[in-house]
């Protein structure tokens, strides 16, 4: 089922400009020669400025300078900035969501959800600003206190992807700011307008609370701009979200200069469906996780490992649900699946499907392009379900598009082995009503991912938990739990109030 009424390029541009202005973007200041386009129609959007090497250098210097002031502002007062930012995000939720839809192609409900996720991380960070606690330990020496304190790092460089063009930056930025750092952000070339809109709201919060203006910057540049953040020694922490290929390039360069790294790379998320699973709930969970956001989340469900006794029945129901998905204009209320980001993404999907067929896979539904007549340069696709005879190379690779590979298992150990038998380790799920299976999946011998769920899909994590994964996903944790520690450095302090000078380990000296 497809929705035919795509907007015109003019419609999108007028919605975009109105929304950018409402967010406080100075259109004249951001305008430049770098072309941007809307995945809704493939039509051009406002062209943006390109920052060169010396401009990026100046941003890092300003951020470094602002850090010297910001680090001494009490953390709860830093929290007041993030609190104001959350108010502005709440007030301009629809404006920012419109920009996200226009540039990333998310359906309105998911674009609003992305902004809600930003508000949520701000709430969390504000609370965190009154904690940032260290431990105290008993000293072995009388009249001494031993404790740990946490201090800001400096400039945090954030590299983010197109698919969560604002939320991932906000996870990093809200925490980095309350922790006393300053931020230089290099968004995806496919998400610069969203970045400028999101950043304009932060700029307003900075002005409203009188925080130092230089504490946040957006770098509008291609890859070289990101590389500058990777290689600049003043960037104390580099937090990068994107492909495994990008992470493999970035990690040794940052490590080579002893910078800190936070990586959130690819996922190839799987779900096991056991015979006891509630199939109504499973179908809904699977369809949202696999087809939602047109399969363009790091957490999208890409592999379904189903018990052989229920496989046919479940697959039939998923296929039937896929046939009812409305694909088209993401601004329309009823639409569930918007466009892919661009042609390369569509081609990647086609190539993967071809390979899957060559490997003996059976494409049960989807895979075709739709609405090509209405918008030649937009790439709307029917999400695909492919029954695979085995977990072949193409299944083991992340294709950033809506392909769900289905495989079967006969015993639960085999299912876990299949599940963990991929290079990535971000998110995972089991659908079961057997408590022992659920517990095994969550145990150390179960899922090897950073996120492991029971009876919900792999995507849509809440902000309160740590977000990230293992193996090629890069090992970083962002957003909730103890992730704030990645933005700070611990110091161990020993305070002597005894008036004597006993040495540790009983050592005698002068
Ligand atoms: C991403 O795709 O990079 O768990 C982030 C989720 C969202 C975040 C996804 N909260 O699906």
From TrEMBL:
It comes from the Bacteria. Signal peptide: none annotated. Keywords: NAD, Oxidoreductase. Residues 33-490 form the Aldehyde dehydrogenase domain. InterPro entries: Ald_DH/histidinol_DH, Ald_DH_C, Ald_DH_N, Aldehyde_DH_dom, ALDH7A1-like. The keyword Transit peptide does not apply. The keyword Oxidoreductase applies. This is Aldehyde dehydrogenase family protein.
